[in-house]
Specification:
The complex is a heterodimer of chains A (about 500) and B (about 130).
Chain A lengths: L2 H4 L4 H19 L6 H20 L6 E3 L4 E3 L1 H21 L7 H17 L5 H19 L6 H32 L4 H11 L3 H19 L7 H8 L2 H27 E3 L7 E3 L5 H20 L5 H20 L4 H32 L10 H4 L1 H15 L5 H15 L3 H26 L13 H19 L2 H10 L7
Antiparallel strand pairs in A: 1-2, 3-4
Helix pairs in contact in A: 2-3, 2-5, 3-4, 3-5, 4-5, 4-11, 4-14, 5-6, 5-11, 6-7, 6-11, 7-8, 7-9, 7-10, 8-11, 9-11, 10-11, 10-13, 11-13, 11-14, 12-13, 12-18, 13-14, 13-17, 13-18, 14-16, 14-17, 14-19, 16-18, 16-19, 17-19
Chain B lengths: L1 H27 L29 H29 L1 H23 L13 H8 L1
The chains are: A mainly alpha (about 500), B mainly alpha (about 130).
């Protein structure tokens, strides 16, 4: 589709661009005590962007801007997810960053980047959108300018990001050399017709995995995660662990279904590899490594944010496990898990954000007896942690059931067994936090006052976590309907 | 694939020539040391003072702002060349582009980043350190 005609399919992104500019200008006219208006405007802009994206379900899938981006229901699903995760982050950030308009504008820019990232159809767009999300993320990680740890987080994120993006771009150059195209669909066709040497293709794919793996925190590209998660402001940590990661997984799926594989004749969403390389085996090893390393490292953490950081690595491992068998079932399972993960992980981080200023500490040891000092908050955290473990009747359980069943259906039994064993290991450190909160007597018995605002937002995250554990049918139907990938220039 | 061997050949020959020139200059150069040789080269001027001085970090901000508008001009040259063929459409497109950059200009202006001495510096945390 030509550039001008594409604009009508690009309205959510155009709207976000305009609202970014408007909020910057509006903020300049606001008085100091009214600065919070820009936060509300951001929330409103995200809501409208969500609604506009939702409307796009009516459009038939198409490629826009001469094949640079595609608009299909898979992309729309992740656009809504990205906008929704940013919306919750705006509310999570409100107590800490009340009057920081720049902060909210940066969040909107990341959202715009994420919108483009899930729609890419060209190697150049992958680079551009990843940098758009990445560069703003580095700024957000270091948003507490006078906090040394925050600065350290920003610098480490930047250095890792620069290195892995460089490696990925090098991989792209190989792909371009082999096929002569940058458009993902044309690359797929060229790979099928030209049959380049499998070894060369394998090396190129591994190089690209470095960049994609860094974005979703896959082992061995996970080294930045614990430090960045610990040093960044808590709302930003929560954001990194859900929004950019979910769209990273979407990009990963897009990469798997175009460059690595093509739709097979056996079924609508079965894929066969363009060139037979041992990629599923490699991904299986990486998935097991990711979840094992994440879980084992989490066992010995003393800081709750670091613990959640390592648990985030482990959860990427579970999602990668389903991507090993990338067929329709697995992709739906991953998409559903992304929704579930959004609620439970935001919930856990929101409780940390609520409790940290009261306890003035992020150490797990200081959570001793929280069940007696702030009963509701502690119970909510327990539910979120149980959900992260995958214990019924929480949403995390259903999410994991779909992931594991997708893997078992394709006879990857060993992989599924290792995944279940990992879930058992993760029970230890999640349950340890719960034990500290409820079974250990606190030294001082003062009740902790939790503001109403915090309680309401906790409920907002808690209800879906519980309800999706019992009645998930509408969500899974919505997810299945959203599985529509467009292949074309 | 043949094109890639040419690139490899180019790379190897490039490395070789760099090595050869280094060896030749090593053989031909005369080695005399005199005091001027150890002074940093500043286009023939004698350097004054230390190289390790503090300078105003507002240079960076001014440089950043300059860079943005420098790139804007860069984009305007090709636009001006094709302006006749695209007409009104090109005009509107460039208008949008310039407006987006103008928002940035308004922002830095309102925040006082165009003043050489930024008004109301927030140096409270520095003042404390001096007292301690």
């Amino acid at each position: 589709m030509s550039n001008l005609n594409s604009l009508q399919y690009f309205i959510p992104e155009l709207f976000l661009t305009v609202s970014i500019l408007v909020i910057i200008i509006v903020d300049l006219f606001l008085k100091k005590e009214k600065k919070v208006v820009s936060a509300y405007l951001t929330a409103l802009a995200l809501l409208v962007a969500m609604a506009l994206s939702f409307q796009q379900y009516n459009f038939s899938p198409a490629s826009l801007f001469e094949g640079m981006v595609v608009l299909d229901s898979f992309a729309i699903f992740f656009k809504i997810l990205a906008a929704f995760s940013t919306l919750i982050i705006v509310f999570i950030s409100l107590p800490t960053f009340r009057d920081k308009a720049e902060y909210y504008v940066l969040l909107l820019v990341v959202t715009l980047g994420m919108f483009i990232m899930v729609q890419v159809n060209d190697l150049l767009m992958i680079l551009l959108s990843m940098e758009m999300v990445g560069v703003i993320s580095y700024v957000l990680a270091g948003y507490n300018k006078k906090n040394l740890k925050s600065n350290e987080a920003s610098l480490k994120y930047l250095l890792f990001g620069a290195a892995s993006t460089g490696v990925m771009a090098f991989g792209f150059s190989y792909i371009y050399g082999m096929t002569g195209h940058t458009n993902l669909y044309l690359i797929q066709q060229a790979l099928l017709n030209n049959n380049p040497h499998p070894l060369a293709f394998f090396i190129a794919v591994v190089l690209i995995l470095a960049g994609l793996g860094y974005k979703i925190a896959m082992v061995p590209f996970h080294f930045w995660v614990p430090d960045v998660y610990e040093g960044s402001p808590t709302p930003i940590t929560a954001f990194f662990s859900v929004g950019p990661k979910a769209v990273g997984v979407a990009l990963f799926i897009r990469f798997l279904t175009t460059i690595v594989a093509h739709p097979a004749s056996t079924g609508l969403y079965d894929f066969t590899q363009n060139i037979p390389i041992k990629l599923p085996e490699l991904l299986a090893v990486l998935a097991v490594l990711t979840m094992t390393l994440g879980n084992l490292s989490a066992l010995q953490q003393k800081n709750i944010k670091r613990l959640l950081g390592y648990s985030a690595i482990a959860h990427v491992g579970y999602m990668l496990m389903a991507l090993v068998v990338f067929n329709g079932n697995a992709i739906v399972a991953v998409m559903f898990y992304a929704i579930v993960y959004l609620f439970m992980n935001f919930g856990a981080f929101w409780i940390v954000e609520t409790i940290t200023p009261k306890l003035k500490s992020e150490r797990i040891a200081d959570y001793t007896g929280l069940g007696y000092r702030a009963p509701f908050t502690a119970v909510a955290l327990a539910v979120f942690l149980f959900s992260l473990t995958g214990i019924p009747p929480t949403a995390g359980f259903i999410g994991k059931v779909y992931l594991f069943s997708a893997v078992i259906k394709e006879q990857w039994y060993l992989l599924a067994v290792l995944g279940v064993l990992n879930s058992v290991v993760s029970l230890y450190y999640y349950a340890y936090v719960i034990k500290v909160m409820f079974l250990n007597q606190p030294e001082n018995n003062d009740l902790i006052e939790v503001p109403l605002y915090n309680k309401v937002l906790t409920w907002v995250l808690l209800i879906p976590t519980l309800v999706m554990g019992l009645y998930w049918n509408p969500v899974i139907t919505f997810t299945e309907n959203s599985l529509g990938l467009f292949f074309g220039k | 694939m043949v094109a890639f061997y040419i690139v490899l050949l180019f790379f190897l020959i490039g490395m070789l020539i760099v090595g050869i020139t280094l060896v030749i200059s090593r053989i031909l150069q005369s080695r005399k040391s005199y005091p001027e040789k150890y002074i940093p080269y500043e286009c023939g001027e004698l350097p004054q003072g230390e190289a390790w001085i503090q300078f105003n970090n507002r240079f960076y901000i001014i440089a950043l702002i300059f860079l943005i508008f420098d790139v804007e001009i860069l984009f305007m040259f090709p636009w001006a060349v094709v302006f006749d063929t695209f007409g009104m459409l090109a005009f509107i497109e460039m208008l949008i582009f310039v407006v987006i950059l103008l928002v940035g200009l308004a922002y830095v202006w309102a925040k006082g980043d165009l003043e050489w001495v930024k008004p109301k510096p927030k140096l409270a945390h520095l003042a404390k350190k001096k007292g301690a």
